[in-house]
Specification:
The longest helix is centred in the last third of the chain and has 32 residues. By secondary structure, the chain is mostly helical. A hairpin with a 5-residue loop joins strand 2 and strand 3. The protein is built from 4 helices and 3 strands; from the N terminus they run βααααββ.
Amino acid sequence: MHVCPVCRRGDRTTRLRTYWRTLSPEARAGAPHLARPALDEERWAAPFGLLTVGCALLVSEVWLGFVGLAGGGLWLVSLRGSVAHAARQRADWRRQLFCLRCRYVFLP
C-alpha cells in the first residue's frame, strides 16, 4: 500500500490510470491535467523521403546527395530524442498514483 505524501494516508490511493478510466467524459474534460500524455505523432515519412532522395542523388553523382543524406540523418536523430522523451512521459504516467482523499498525483 502506498501512502500519499500530502495527507499521509494510504487507504484512498489508487493508480492514476485506473481512476482515469472510471471518469465520465464530462469529468475527463474538466481534468485534463490527469490525462495520459498525448502521443506526439512524429512524421517519419519526410525524413525517410529526404534520405531516399539523397541516396538517389548520390548514386547519380550529384553533390546535393550529401546534403540530403546529412539533413535526413539529422532529422531522424532529432525525432528519436523526442520519441524517447514522450515514451518516458507515458511510462511515468503509468506508474503514477492518485489520492482520492486530497486529489494529489504522485509517484510511488
